[in-house]
Amino acid sequence: MPTEKQDGLRSLIFLENKNVDMRIIIIFLVFILSATSAYSQKEKKRIRQGNTEYEEGNFSEAEKEYRKALMEKPGYTKGTFNLGDAMYEQENYEESNKLFTEVTERITSPEEKASAYYNLGNTYMKENKFQESIDAYKNSLRLNPNDPDAKYNLEYARKKLKEQQQNQDQNQDQDKKDQDKKDQDKKDQDKKDQEKKDQNKKDQDKENKDQDKKDQEKKDQNNGDQKKDQQKQEPQKISKQDAQRMLDALNNDEKKTLQKLQKQKAEAIKGKKSDIDW
Predict the structure, then answer these.
(1) Is there a domain that residue 210 lies in?
(2) Domain enclosing residue 98, as ranges
(3) What total number of domains does the chain contain?
């Protein structure tokens, strides 16, 4: 079948705008009409129908026809190649990559092998696997050194790989800065938390000390009041000597009082006798 229309060497403007037209090569299906041909009419019919759908942009329908051709003839290299194209156009790059890799391992024609490596490079580009795409384009150029599109895409892939590595380095530096800041913030927060914890402990110790002091003062006050109450309630105890002295003092007071009374009585009697004499 006819290949997709090829562009010439594209300008750097397209490179910068990432508008690279990734060429997908569709193999010419040239069949040798001979008595020894092993291809069935059904296989060729499926491939032709798939190519028609592909050219009209019906990639899912083209995929179906290519898969039917592979069912008719498993391992059919040209059917596998074209199926890889259809999957690429449907942005199923993972399967497209797998199919083109399979083709590069089985195909023998240098030209077709170069095209398979080229398309494999394109799928790697779509997956941002730039080192793998570089290797694929190099393999394509070893088989077809004059392919301008392969040369162009190789340089583009190298540029993208350099940008990717720079971005990775920048991201690593930024990640390191972010981690350092995170560690420092944590360290500062831990310090604040510890200072707060220490201050709380000091405040609590002071509060406990003040409370203990108040409790002790209250206890002493209670003990003093209790002691006074006991002193009021309990009679004062005196020694034997003090008791004897007090008793003697009372006896002396009684004697004096008695003598005073007797004296008063005598004087009263004396006064009465004088009245009688008159």
Answers:
(1) no
(2) 12-166
(3) 1
Q: What is the DSSP string of 137-192?
A: HHHHHHH-TT-HHHHHHHHHHHHHHHHHHHHHHHHHHHHHHHHHHHHHHHHHHHHH
Using the Cα atoms of residue 97, residue 100, residue 106 and residue 108 in order, give the sign of their dihedral: negative
Report yes or no: 20 and 156 within 8 Å, Cβ to Cβ: yes
pLDDT above 90 as % of the chain: 46
pLDDT digits (tens, 9 = 90+) for 152-176: 999 999 999 999 999 988 887 777 7
Domain harbouring 61, CATH code: 1.25.40.10
* Stated pTM of the model: 0.54
- The DSSP secondary structure of the chain, one letter per residue, reads -PPPPPP-SPPHHHHHTT------PPPP-----STT----HHHHHHHHHHHHHHHTT-HHHHHHHHHHHHHHSTT-HHHHHHHHHHHHHTT-HHHHHHHHHHHHHH---HHHHHHHHHHHHHHHHHTT-HHHHHHHHHHHHHH-TT-HHHHHHHHHHHHHHHHHHHHHHHHHHHHHHHHHHHHHHHHHHHHHHHHHHHHHHHHHHHHHHHHHHHHHHHHHHHHHHHHHHHHHHSPPP--HHHHHHHHHHHHHHHHHHHHHHHHHHHHHHHHHHHHHH-
- Work out the percent of the chain whose per-residue pLDDT is above 70: 79
Query: Is 218 among the domain residues?
Result: no
Q: Is residue 101 part of a domain?
A: yes
Which of 58-62, 105-109, 141-145, 252-256 has the least mean pLDDT? 252-256
- What's the mean pLDDT in 7-25? 37
Q: Is residue 205 part of a domain?
A: no
